[in-house]
Amino acid sequence: MEMHALPRSRAVEELGYDPAARSLRVHFRGGGIYDYLDVPAEIFAGLLASAHPWTEWGAHIKATFGFRRVQ
Predict the structure, then answer these.
(1) How far apart are CA 47 and CA 54, in angstroms?
(2) DSSP string across 34-71
(3) 16 burial class (0-12, 13-18, 19+ CB within 10 angstroms)?
(4) What does the pLDDT look like over 12-28, one tens digit per residue?
């Protein structure tokens, strides 16, 4: 999975997306890495385009999609 750096985000260091699995990987600056499950590609695109990705999208993602901690 290709990861994309988010230098403008205080919370998220990198994001990745697997379209076949519809899995969103979020690497937080605090050290945790999580996979959010069954996430539409539009969410990933919105995160990449946002000036404040986790502030804008985080609550929706956490409330809507299941997840598992990777590391």
Answers:
(1) 7
(2) EEE-S--HHHHHHHHH-SSHHHHHHHHHHHHS-EEE--
(3) middle
(4) 999 999 999 999 999 99
* Phi, psi (deg, nearest 5) at residue 68: -145, 140
Amino acid code (one letter) for 13: E
Burial of 31 (0-12, 13-18, 19+ CB in 10 A): exposed
- Name the stretches of the chain with pLDDT < 50: none
- Residue ranges of domains in the chain: 3-69
The CB density around residue 11, as the number of other CB atoms within 10 Å, is: 14
Question: What is the value of pTM for the model shown?
Answer: 0.93
